[in-house]
Give the backbone structure.
Amino acid sequence: MHDATTDDLRAELRDWLCAYLAEELRLPAGSIDPAEPMSAYGLDSVRAIALLTEVEDHVGFEIDPNALWEFPTVASFAEMLAQQAPSGQGAAGQGAAGQSG
């Protein structure tokens, strides 16, 4: 079941992940398609570990290291994160408008 808060959080996470991946993989901003596997853009195991660390810092909770393989697209990964986020917490609560890396 989805509500506006979950939908907003999922959208914020999707946008943040796309921007992070584009920067990390040195791709043009806006070039990451949330429906494409992240590996298609060059996300390897080393970068996946770095991504997990950044995401955990961003959302404020631990993520199963296998999550990127179980949820290989930005869209599916953001959906999983939004569903696991503690109620009233998560990326949206940490300054979605301007996360300083």
Residues 89-101 have pLDDT under 50 and may be disordered. Residues 58 and 95 are 9 Å apart (CA to CA). The longest helix spans residues 4-24.
